[in-house]
Write a structure and sequence with these properties.
The chain is an alpha/beta fold and about 725 residues long. α10 packs across α14 and α15 crosses α18.
Length: about 725
Amino acid sequence: MSLPHSAGYSRKMINSIRFLHITDTHITGAGVPLKRDDFKEKIPGIEQTTREAALELVFERLSERLRRDGDVLDAIIFTGDATLKGDEGGHKALLDLLLKHFASVGIAPQNIVATPGNHDVPKGTEPGSEDRYQAFVNVWRAAGCVTPWLDGIDETRTVTPGIHRLVGPDARWAIYPINSANWSHVNSILPSPLNDIWDEVHTLLAKRDAEKAAALRKQFDDLAQFDMARVSEAQLEELRRIVGDTPSSAGGHQIRIAALHHHLRAPSLREEVKAFADFTNLALLRQTLRERAIDVVMHGHKHEHAASFDHIYSEEGGEPHRTLVLSGATFDDNRGSDAARLVTIHDMPFAPRLATAPVSILRGGTELKIGNPQEFRLWSLDHRPDGPVVIQGTDFETVYHRACELALGEAKRGTLITHLDLDADRAILLPATYPLPESMTEVERQTWLDELVSWWQMDRSQLDQRIPFIHGNRLRRFAGRIDQIDRVRKMLAKKGSSRAVATLIDPAKDFEPDGDDEAFASFCLVQFRKRETAASAAIDIVGYYRAQEFARWWPINVAELRALQLSVVRGSRMTCGRITTITAEARSSGKSPTQVAMPVIDRWLDQYPERLYVLANSLLGAGDNLPLRSLVVREWFQTLDDLKEATERFNPDGVPIAIEGLQALASYLKASDASGDAAVLLDALNGLINANRSYSATPQLYEDFERWGAASYLSTVRNTSFKLLG
C-alpha cells in the first residue's frame, strides 16, 4: 500500500516523518482492570480504572497535542498482543480507539500496520489454519490495515505485495510487517505410545475425581504446548519478493522498517527461563533483514523498552549491516511511563536520524507527558576500499601499532587520519617497540625523543642551507620574520578562531614552475582549535601531512604537535587538548631509519657544539678526563650504527645523512695534525662526507642509493673509532 501526496503530506513533511508505535495493549473491550491504586476498602463509586480507559485517555491527549502543534502521524505501527489471553474483543477495541482518536491527525486504516502477537492467536490451533488467524483477519485486514503475509491464509507468488507493506510518498520510507506468531501456543506431536493414551491419561490418574481430572488435563496440555517464535521460510521468501517489488525512493536512501511481535534479542538483563524463549531460526531471520537492507526493526512481546543497534554479519564475514532495534514497552499496574512511543525520523532522505520518545499513561486532570527523546543516526560512514581510514583512541601505544598496521595494509598510500585524546598532563612517551637500539634505557630513549623534537622545532639551524624546511624555522620565522605560533597564542588567548592556522609551505621558496626538483617538508599545515570544556578551555591541534611515515615519523610528529600545544597554552589557563594527524599518503617503513632521526652529530652543531670538541679530543687521546665523555662516545657510536643501518636498506622516504657534523669533527682533527689511526680516521671521514654530500644532492632514488658508496668509508670510521676510543 502506498500513501499518496495529499493535504496531510507536504514536501516539508516528507523530510520528517512521525509514527506511533504501540504494542502489547492486552485489552478485551469489556474492561481489563488496571490496579494501579491501593483500595483497601470498597466504597461505592470508587473503582479501579481499566486498561481500555487508560489507553483512551492517553490517545485522546496525544491527538490533542498533535493537533495543537500542527503535527500529523504518518503511520501507526502495532506490533501485536492487542488481546488478553486470546479474547477476540481486544482487536476491535484497539482498532476502534486508534481510528476514533487519530483520524483527525492523518490516520486511516490504510496507514495502520498491524501484526499478530502470541496472545492474538488461540491456543492449540494449527499453524497456518483459519482458526488461528480468523479474529485478527476479521478486524485488522478486513478494515484495510496493512498486515503481514500469513502462512496458510495467503497464497504464494500470487498475492498483491502492496497489501503487506506501507510505502510513504515518493517511496522515501517503507514498513514491512512480519508474522512471528504462526507457532505460538502450538501443540507438539507426541510420540507413541504416549500419543495413543494422551486423551485418557488424565482420567486414569484422577481416579474418578472430575475436578482433578480437569486440572490434570490442563497441566498435561500445557506441558505439550510450546509458545514458539518462528518465521517460516515461505514467509521470508514472500518478504523477499515484497521488498524487491517496492518502488525505489525518488531520491536518496529509502528507510526500511520491519515490524514484528517477538524480540530479536532480550531487551534487558531480565532472564526468562522457558522453552523456546527466543526465535528458533533467528540466524535466518537476521540474514534476511541484512539482505533486505532493513534499517529499523520494531517489536514488542517483552513489555520492556530498549533501543540498540544490531550489527548483522553475513556468513562470509565482511562489513556488517547495521539495524536499529526498537523494543516497545507497555503499561501495567506498577508501570506507566512507557505506554507508547512516538518515533520521528528527521533529515530524510540523505542524513536520516531517528528519535524515539516515551508517552506516559496519565490520570484525569493531568497533562500528557512525553519523555526526552533518544536519538540515533540511521546512516553510517561508508567505508570504501580506497577511501580515508580513521583511527582514534586514548592510548598512544595502541593507536601507534594500529596505525602502523593500517599504513602497511588497508590505508597504504592512502588517506589515514589518527585522533588521540590523551591525558593533558602526561608527556608523550616513545612506544615500547619504537625502533631504537635495545641497549638504550628508558631515560635515554626519552632524552633522545625530547632532543629530536626540540631540534625539529628550532627557529634557526646551521643545517638550514641543506634542510631549509626545518619545522621550527617555518613556524617561528616564516619568510624570516613571522612567528606564527606566537600569533596563534595571542589570538586564542582572546577567543576561539578558525584562523588559528600556521603553514610550513612557502611557495616562493619551495615551488618550481614545472614542479621538478622540489624539496619541502611533509608537515604542511597545523591548525589550533579552542574548545570549551567543563573545567577550562582546551587547545586541540590538527596537523596535515602530504605524506607520513608511521613506524618512525608519526610518534615524532605527535610529540611535535604536543610541544606546539604547550607553546600555545603556556602561561594561560588553557590546557592541551586532542591531537589529530591527517595524511594524504600513509606509509610505514618498519625498522628502516628515516630522515626524521637526524644524525646526532649533525644536531650537536645546533644543540650541543661542545660535544664535538669532546669527541675530537677523545679520538686524539686527550679527552679521557673531560666531562660528558661517556655520553659523547655512546652517542657517536649510536650515530655510526644509524648511518650503517641507513646504508643497508633503501628507504623511499629518505634516510638520515650526516654531513655538517662530520665536517666539523674532521676540521677539529685536521687542525690537531692527526696522525696514525687518527689520520686514517680523518681520511675515512672525508671520504664519507663526500659520498654523503653527493648522495644528498641526488633525487635519492633506488639507483642513487646503489651508487651511494658510503659503506666502505663508514666501516673504516667505525673500526678506527673502536681502536681510538677503546
